[in-house]
């Protein structure tokens, strides 16, 4: 099947662009955007993905304000969309200037949540190391991702009680954030028969921290097994293009996380890594303090895997399906639903020979299964003061 993409010289193999190079049902191609007000008053996350082998395009906008979590989400058959102007229902992405500036929108809808803002990168996108995970013979992850820090300009409107609404004037001085683009294979869509994986309890430990400071950005990412051995690790400092400075890599990224007792909810952390001397030896230790400001449990309502009725790539029908999800996390009932991966808008600080640096970015973490450092021994047991660390 031909699409508008076939009129551009971008083919990678001898098939129309509609077809990807693998028949794996879990192939995906996704945008992720995050932004928040530096004081922590509000935060948003936007995602849009296409799933060629499932024939689906879907998207969501999630907003957290004063503990109320709101989501607008939409899905439709992929063939109805224009891949050069990806959109579904009220949600869409426009590439204004490739690798630099993108516009994201949520048009008026039944739930009073609208968004129209432009992300501008503060540096060139960084290509992360290839993420490859094979479990019991099956490739679970095989992805490429770019990451970029930047600022936002636009407006966000949400309900504010008793029929009123609140509009945030978003500007690049006070609203910072991050975005990524990833594609490849990862678990999506309806649940599959697990085979041998159904009886094997594996650890998924993940810390991901893209951070923007005034004159540079950092990206630190770590995925570990139960014993702390690494699946993936990277730590890099990035400079604006106009400085002509090359990316600066660090060695031995590591973490010291703090938790709310009895849970796996991280209340903060220290992220440490070492500079690398000219001879390859470890130099100065960079010690970054992490202060979460506003959390979004992104696995709820958005499609990231915990809802039986809405997952990324799940077939919802040919025509656009647009839904709303809302949760008051201030109530005991709402708080009890909070589980899994957490994307925190966070404040970061560290000191080096140039002085003290304060930045803002994403503190994303997920811990499922045993992990020796923090004393977790089961799939979901909570943190004990006497545990690991």
Describe the structure.
The chain has one helix at 332-336, and strands spanning 27-37, 42-51, 56-65, 68-77, 87-88, 91-97, 101-106, 114-121, 126-127, 131-135, 138-159, 165-170, 175-185, 204-212, 217-224, 230-238, 248-249, 251-259, 266-276, 282-296, 321-328, 342-352, 355-368. It folds into 2 domains: 27-129 and 145-179 and 299-340, Beta Barrel (AttH-like fold); 200-297 and 341-389, AttH-like fold. Strands 1, 2, 3, 4, 5, 6, 7, 8, 9, 10, 11, 12, 13 and 21 form a 14-stranded antiparallel β-sheet that branches. A 9-stranded antiparallel β-sheet has the order 17-16-15-14-23-22-20-19-18, with no helix packed on it. With 389 residues, it is mostly beta strands.
Termini, distance in Å?
55 Å
- Determine the CATH topology of the largest domain: AttH-like fold
Number of helices: 1
Anisotropy-based shape: globular
Structural class, by secondary structure, is mainly beta
The count of domains is 2
CATH class category of the largest domain: Mainly Beta
Any guess at the CATH architecture of the largest domain? Beta Barrel
Q: Describe the biggest sheet?
A: 14 strands, antiparallel
Tell me the number of strands: 23
Low-confidence stretches: none
Mean residue pLDDT: 95
- Helix/strand order, N-terminal first: EEEEEEEEEEEEEEEEEEEEEHEE
Strand content: over 45%
Fraction of residues in H or I helices: under 10%
């Amino acid at each position: 099947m031909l699409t508008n993409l076939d009129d551009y010289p971008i083919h990678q193999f001898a098939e129309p662009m509609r077809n990807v190079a693998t028949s794996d049902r879990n192939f995906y191609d996704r945008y992720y955007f995050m932004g928040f007000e530096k004081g922590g008053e509000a935060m948003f996350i936007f995602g849009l993905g296409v799933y060629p082998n499932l024939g689906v395009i879907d998207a969501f906008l999630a907003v957290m304000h004063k503990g109320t979590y709101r989501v607008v989400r939409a899905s439709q058959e992929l063939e109805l969309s224009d891949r050069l102007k990806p959109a579904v229902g009220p949600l869409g992405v426009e590439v204004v200037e490739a690798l630099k500036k993108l516009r994201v929108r949520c048009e008026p809808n039944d739930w009073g949540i609208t968004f129209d803002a432009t992300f501008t990168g503060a540096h060139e996108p960084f290509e992360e190391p290839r993420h490859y995970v094979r479990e019991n013979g099956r490739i679970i992850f095989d992805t490429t991702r770019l990451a970029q820090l930047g600022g936002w300009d636009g407006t966000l409107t949400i309900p504010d009680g008793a029929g009123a609404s609140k509009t945030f004037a978003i500007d690049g001085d006070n609203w910072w954030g991050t975005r990524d683009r990833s594609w490849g294979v990862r678990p999506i869509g309806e649940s599959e028969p697990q085979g041998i994986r159904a009886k094997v309890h594996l650890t998924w430990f993940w810390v991901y921290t893209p951070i923007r400071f005034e004159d540079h950005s950092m990206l630190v990412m770590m995925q570990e097994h139960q014993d702390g051995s690494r699946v993936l690790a990277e730590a890099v400092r990035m400079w604006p293009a106009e400085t002509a400075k090359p990316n600066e890599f660090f060695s031995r990224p590591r973490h010291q996380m703090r938790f709310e007792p009895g849970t796996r909810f991280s209340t903060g952390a220290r992220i440490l890594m070492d500079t690398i001397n000219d001879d390859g030896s470890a130099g100065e230790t960079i010690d970054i303090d992490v202060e979460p400001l506003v959390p979004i449990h992104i696995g709820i309502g958005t499609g990231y895997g915990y809802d039986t009725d809405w997952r990324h790539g799940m077939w919802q029908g040919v025509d656009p399906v647009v839904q709303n999800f809302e949760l008051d996390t201030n109530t005991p009932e709402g708080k009890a639903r909070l589980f899994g991966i957490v994307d925190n808008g966070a404040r970061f600080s560290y000191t080096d020979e140039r002085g003290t640096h304060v930045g803002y970015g994403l503190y994303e973490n997920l811990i499922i299964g045993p992990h020796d450092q923090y004393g977790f021994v089961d799939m979901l047991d909570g943190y004990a003061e006497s545990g690991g660390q």
